[in-house]
Amino acid sequence: MQSNRRQWLLAATAAAAGLPVLGAVAAPAGPATAAAAATLPSGPIKLVVGFPPGGGTDILARLLAQKLQVLWGRTVIVENRAGVSGTLAADYVAKQPGDGNTLLLAHISSNGIAPGLYPKLGYSAEKDFAPITMVGATPMVVMCKPDKGLRSLEALIERCRQQPGRVSFGSAGTGSAQHLAMEELRRRAGIEVLHVPYKGSAPMVTDLLGGQIDACFEGMTTATPYLKAGKLQGLATTRLQRAKGFADLPTLAEKGFAGFDASIWFALAAPAAMPAALVQRMNADVNQVLASADLQAKLAEIGAEDSGGTPERLGSFMRAEQARWARLIREAKITPDS
Fold it and tell me: pTM for the whole thing?
């Protein structure tokens, strides 16, 4: 009787938060039931973010934490450990016990690019984490100021050919997702550009608006307000499909760069020692939260796609990203101080 009352209260709490009710409560015995029965850790759960408060990664983490706190009935704290492109946070989480009390909002920088960029990284992105689920992948957009006279991707590439090494592309830093997307375009288009690395997206976009640089790749999360206000002009996006919020913008693949697919992605991961049953329990819960209408609306607002899925799907995706960017970094001879 007490157990039934507890299940009813959990379902009512989830419904009040706008979450779908977990079907696993009444499921027959089996692997799914075992995962659902995995005990959550006692005490607060930390969701560690490798970037400062207020940025896209932090905003996403706080939305997720708020929903999970209601579903789990315990405190979920977002802890910002900013620095070195998110690697400080990843290094910290990699060394925590696998009891479920500490989770990482993994980022392309810390868990996709860093393994190929930093030869003395203090953790293994492949071996030190248990993937839980994809939170979302946002496309990047190639953009410039409208007064630059560049109305298309073709026009930008042609200017680069006419002025080799003089058209400036900003990035959020050497080895950032924006830098590597630019490098892939440079190599595939056979052009030379002037790379201008910044310490983050904010100063890069400020200089783009001010006309100090000619163009850049930037994540849809940051780019959207400027594109909608007409302050910046989008030329192409970097996923295989057009961004839902900017259906009029062509993809790089459509513009002749077949298979060009680059995103800024976020995923939930835990220390590798976390038990498989708890990984599956958290996967089911986070997938449920990601399916809620308001969180889906927020993800769409910032251009995040492909959320949810299995731990295995996320693990395969992350390994493919690590191999892909490591190859580009090696071939382009990119180093942290280059």
Answer: 0.85
